[in-house]
Structure formats: structure tokens, C-alpha cells
Amino acid sequence: MPRCRVVAPDVVRLPLSDGDSVEVKKTLNAGEYRKLIYDQFKDTPDGERITLDHSKVGMAKLLAYIVGWTFVGFDGQPLPYRPDEPEDIRRATIDGLDQETYRELIAAVTAHEEREDAALEAQKKTRITEPA
Amino acid sequence: MFEELEAHGGEATISWAWHTAAVFRTWRIHKTKTGPWSLVATATRVDTFKLQQRPLLFNVPRKGGYWCWPVKAVTVQDKQITAALGPMEA
């Protein structure tokens, strides 16, 4: 049977401090991955060499991966966050979090990304060594 | 309690997880007292692959969030979409 190459929209829950958690996409599809790469580079005039914009790297990763969380607002009610909201709204919501939470989110999402990359590499090796 | 309920509006979507499966220009939902919710909508964009996946949600934006219904079955004819919906979720 041929291999299905479509990325299923699976979600992984990552634990955070104080009993909170964040839900992230298990794997980015090609479009999401491509957007993440482009979003991390500086805007440059045509013909100029493109360079990584370190100020965009963390936020681009969070916007690409996060689909929800358990955070609450001042009133104790859930702090809304939907992946299908416009990007500027999601960005503003993340910008409103405290710095410690922002750093914790980046660390959690980066660790998740590294685990998934390693798992994909292992899967590829298994496919290559499987008999036809 | 109502005997029959009908609502209609402008922009709405059907989503598969965080992916947009269809975007609607106009939509109309209908429910009788004992019957299920049904949807008739005119789409501006349809992704037929994503519309075949499950679970699907019909989302109507409202102040502070969305009203959502699970999509039980969906048929597409040109840009006209009809769907059977489950109970409203939020």
C-alpha cells in the first residue's frame, strides 16, 4: 500500500509550570514549514542577501505550532487562542503574556520540535531498511 | 422552547482541525424542535480533500469567539454546500 504523504492534524499537549499546558501541532505540513522558514528572515529589498532575523525566530515558531493552551485571563476565564484566528490577533495575545511564560513556551516548543525531528529521522531509517 | 429555528449570516467556515476546508459567503442553518441542525451555504472556497476528512466543524464568528457545530455529513455541488450538523458545541 502506498504511503500517505498528507500530514494528519494531530495535537500534542506539552506540560508547563504551575499545572498549565500548551497544545501544539505534532508535525508541521509543507505549507506551515515553509511559512515558518520565511517568517524567520528579515525583509530585504530585491537582490539583497536574506538573513535570519533573530527577533522573529521565537515568535514565528510559537505562531506556527501553538493551537491552544490552558492559560486564563485576569477574570480566571480561559484566555482565547485559536489557530485559525488572524495572525496579528494571535501575535498580540502571545505578546500580552509575561516574559517568563514566553520563554517557557519557546523552550517547550523547541524541545517538541527536536523530538519530532528525531522521530521522523528514525522513521525514515526504518522505511529504508524495510524489505520491499 | 422553539418549534423551529432558522439563522443566517455572512462569513463562516468549515474547518478540519486548524485547516480551513470551506469558506462561505452566505449560510443558513435550520432546526426543527425534534430534528437535527441542517446547513445550506454558498462557498467562495472549497478544499474537497479536507472536506472528506473528519472531524469537521462549522464555525460562525461571534463577538469574543465562535459558535461551532460538528459536521455529520456534507455534500458539495458546485459552490453550494449542504450539511447535517450535530448539536451546537460553543
The count of helical stretches of chain B stands at 1
- State the order of secondary-structure elements of chain A, H for helix, E for strand: EEHHEHH
Number of helices of chain A: 4
Q: What overall form of chain A do the CA principal axes indicate?
A: globular
Tally of discrete structural domains of chain B: 1
- Overall pLDDT score of chain A: 92
- Outline the low-pLDDT stretches of chain B: none
Number of domains of chain A: 1
Helical content of chain B (DSSP H or I, runs of 4+): under 10%
**Rg from Cα of chain B:** 12 Å
As laid out across the biggest beta sheet of chain A, the strand order is 1-2-3
Overall geometry of chain B comes to globular
In short:
The complex is a heterodimer of chains A (132) and B (90). Chain A is mainly alpha-helical. Chain A is built from 4 helices and 3 strands; from the N terminus they run ββααβαα.
Any overview of this molecule?
The complex is a heterodimer of chains A (132) and B (90). The mean pLDDT of chain A is 92. Chain A is mainly alpha-helical and 132 residues long. Chain A has helices spanning 30-39, 54-65, 87-95, 99-129; strands at 11-15, 21-25, 66-69. In chain A, a hairpin with a 5-residue loop joins β1 and β2. Chain A has 4 helices and 3 strands; from the N terminus they run ββααβαα. Chain A is globular, with a radius of gyration of 17 Å. Chain A has a 3-stranded antiparallel sheet. In chain A, 47% of the residues lie in helices and 11% in strands. The N and C termini of chain A lie close together (11 Å). Chain B starts with a strand and ends in a 5-residue tail after the last strand. Chain B has 90 residues and is mainly beta. Chain B has a 6-stranded antiparallel barrel. Chain B has one helix at residues 48-51, and strands at residues 4-9, 12-16, 19-32, 37-46, 56-62, 65-77, 80-85. Chain B has one domain (4-85). Chain B contains 1 helix and 7 strands. Chain A binds chain B through residues 6, 9, 11, 25, 67, 80, 82-84, and chain B through 13, 15-20, 49, 59, 64-66.
